[in-house]
Amino acid sequence: MNExxxxxxxxxxxxxxxxxxPWWKSYLxxxxxxxxxxxxxxxITAALTKANIFVLYKTMFVxxxxxxxxxxxxxxxxxxxxxxxxxxxxxxVALALTPAFRMHFWNIGAEGQxxxxxxxxxxxxxxxxxxxxVPVLVLLMIVASIxxxxxxxxxxxxxKAFFGTNETLFTLMMNYVAAQLISFSxxxxxxxxxxxxxxxxxxxxxxxxxxVGWFPSIFGQQYLMNILxxxxxxxxxxxxxxxxKHGYEISVVGESExxxxxxGVNVKKVIIRTMILSGALCGISGLVLVAGTDHSLSxxxxxxxxxxxxxxxxxxxxxPAYMALTSFLIVFVERGTKELSTAYAQISxxxxxxxxxxxxxxxxxxxxxxNYRVRxxxxxxxxxxxxx
Length: 388
Description:
This protein is mainly alpha-helical. It has helices spanning 23-49, 53-65, 77-102, 110-128, 134-163, 167-189, 224-243, 245-255, 257-262, 267-293, 305-315, 320-343, 349-371; strands at residues 6-9, 13-17, 66-69, 72-75, 372-376, 384-387. Helix 1 (23-49) packs antiparallel against helix 13 (349-371), helix 4 (110-128) packs antiparallel against helix 5 and helix 8 (245-255) crosses helix 10.
């Protein structure tokens, strides 16, 4: 038989999966991505403000941790504690997403689960303050927050386990249901005008029950309790996922449900149990927001953290030990860009959000180059081969 041979050329771009990159190289790539993002953001900001790019960087980094006193920049302990508190809240939500994501259950409903945890805490504070002893009130706040978040997490888990529904869409829609439930409760029950609230809706700020149910200050620091709670949760979740039987089952189900069934793992039970845990941790985030931070309830209580936390946990590769660093990075960049918008009239809050988006885009984009190798074959270098 005659064989016809055709000349073929290699593609212009060739993308192939990398072998595992050494950890130090991967961190160098991430560092380069952060520097590139800061450079792009700096160029855009300098073009708008006509300011020196190095002056902009100084404003961004220094003003985030300092205040002006007597025409001098002075390190601000208050700003530092505020940043650490924001890091703690974001980290808490990221921790909540981690078990579900390790199981490859794409929980996009953290926003709603945080809102339901906040709803449970606020409902107890508003309706039971002064009617039960304070220790009982605090216990009920904790229980209501955990139950609220867990309930909002387990509903889509049940439908996923028994009916195979799409968890991404289901959990996303649950966010809107939670927001509307809170809006209805505030309007229908008149919580905004409840006794003990001021005109901004802060719970237990006025009257005989002033600050009842609020987290206490520790060593004079208002947010230290929040930070300690999240630090303990970080350690516990790390141990749970890495060393417990449940953590092992989560990983196996995430790798392959068929393999999990073959070795005797009850997949439905693991899905439901893990989403109860994920929702409960989101509920604790809501508790911290109401009892330790805002002391109020609204549809904006979660503040978009449920979506930002997705990036935090993804960038940390679902490792709770690394999430504190990624949370700090995102919070610091967000506050730095807000400081720029305060210092320069040409920069609006919307532009500050765009700059944050550029930074996050570069950081997430670098993960592609960590996991894949891109080869470019220029026309003069492209080799011709033969295919039969």
